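Trying the structure run again after the queue cleared.
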Amino acid sequence: MSIKKNAFINYAGQGWIALVGIVFVPIYLKHLGIANYGLIGIYTVLQTWVSLLDLGITPTITREMAKLQSGEHSPQSIRNLIFTFETLIYTISICVLLILLLSSGLISDLWINSEDASNLPLVEAIQVASFVVASRFCEGIYRGGLIGLEKHYALNKVQVFFSTLKFSGAAILVSFHPSIVLFFAWQALVSICNVIYLRKIFFRYIPKGHAVPVIDFSAISKVKNFAGGMTITNLIALVFTQSDKFIVSFYCSLESFGTYMLAFTITGILPMLIYPIVATISPKLNVATSLKNESNELFLFNTGNQIATLIATPIFAVCFFFGYQVIFSWTNDASVASISGNLLSMLVIGIYCNTLMLIPFSLQQAHGWTTLSITSNLIGLLILIPTAYAAVNVYGATGVAFAWALSNLVIFFIATIKMHQKLLCGELKPFIKVIILKPVLISSLVAIPINFYFLNLGQNRLLTFFGLLFYIFISALLILATLPIKNEMLKLIKSKNIGK
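Done. Tokens:
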């Protein structure tokens, strides 16, 4: 399937998932309250930390499926590799489930600041959430495999169905019975069904071998360097990206953590909208790199970055300049917006930097180069942890958000410069000028008249929402006018062998 079709399918799927994920949050807040939303944030942190145990399997399976496409695997060898990885993943998942169930009391007592949550069923919620964490951990291998096989339609169809079921079902249940335990129970049921169905779909596209698949440690040894590098990369990256949330959840009240995670939920739109183009381009980058096709590699890299900045920069700018208005139009709660809005304006800086690094990171993966990500994230950690620790005692969650923004800005520029020096000599200045400076400047200038509009608007939720949409649209339109993306997309449509 062409890049054009894959990108459309991925954007349609991820766009819908982002929409349903955002639409139902105000319902959760209304019926569960901000403290319970903090518990959902605790679950999110647990889920992310557990993903460290993936051991690089998900990106490795994506890479190996792309190699299957180019004929570098036999049906039997790929089935042995999948079976070996499945055995590891399910074993780890069971261990995670047991550990979380047995340690739920300790998590409640030692981690969660429960001064404002004495009436919440903390232990029961964590125990039920453990099943969600364990089941979702198993999804990665099948998602990664389908992406590597470029079966984007099949993957998005499954994700759209189960995401809609998960979010809408939970909203209906908590509307009739406001219980965080019931919320997690529904999430667990849907997640388990999702894993079962994803596996079924995945194996439809795997060629049959000549024998029953077996655990093959020699298959692992062939990919151990890449998988090991990805494990270390993911470990440091996740410690870096989750340290701020751990500090806020540990030192601040559950309610403060809830407002922090509410702001972070909005920032999650940025990478979610860029993941589809990453999922589309990454397998083709792997093929182009393995075939040493540098012209196609550069073409894919530039095209992906232009699409990324076109989508991400207007959304970054609306969250940065109009954080209060974004939260208010979403939740219709001025008191929550006054707190989360300020957090959003700072948190989105870090997420924007991370988002613009997604395509460059895919290029690094295609070259098997993981040390840059490890080094830059270590530098980020050295900045984030002491800064956040010092700031949280004085400024609370706001201080941690500042530390998050600062550390991400530093490593973004370090990683960008180093990557271009090694892989794309001569492309650094065009990247900074076209992908960063021009889009950010345009969005900043457009924000000036829009700000006057909001100053004279008052607390009108509907007009605020349309004002934000108008700002995003105008910014994107003006950014598009500065990008060579029209010419790039025309080439993309005409080309039939990109990445081959």
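The chain is about 85% helix and 0% strand. Worth checking whether this holds up in the mutant runs.
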